[in-house]
Amino acid sequence: MAAIQEPKISIKISLSSYLYHFSNPTPPEISVVVESFCDRPITLFTWGTPLDPASARTQGGFVIIDLANDESVPQTSSSINRTPFSRARGSGDEKYFMTLHPNTPIISSTRFGRAAGYRPQPKAIVERGWEVDEQGNEKKTRRSVRGCGVDGLEAGHRYRVDVARGKLLGTWWRWGTKDDIMIDEGATDWNLSELEQEQVPLDFEQIDGVEFAIEE
How far apart, in whole angstroms, are the C-alpha atoms of residue 74 and residue 64? Predict the structure, then answer.
């Protein structure tokens, strides 16, 4: 009996700019390039993993290391209570199903900072725990004392961003394409947790992070 193929996948991170200035109200974009080296398509569910940078940004999917002391920078991690994930076409979860075809990279990008409308702030401001206005004056609105992407970092420091490998463990996947897994809206067996995933773990054999710098 032939051994079951263990899917090999690479992940590469890139930034739209490797030098960020806090004078810029817009953070750089972070992109994650995912490529499969299998001989047939596989489909993964990416929510909360580094494979979906938009959700990973606030779900602990990235690790930022301050190269001045080799210590990780605490990142905002949101706790979300939600209904079970759905595999119904047209559902809000459809965008989290990623089909990887052999040797065909897929790029996903998001802002490397807080949500739109919030400009990144340096560590000295973030750790105080208050929102600030356009003039830098504190408002009576609390915020997390942990950063998000370039938000909460220190000018004059170099950093490295990597994926949180622990967030890749147990990534849900099956052989085949997204169309093989999705079902029509209104079907009763929409709950993703009721669809058995493959038992062979994914092999993330190559994961490349990047370095970047912060200035005032």
Answer: 8
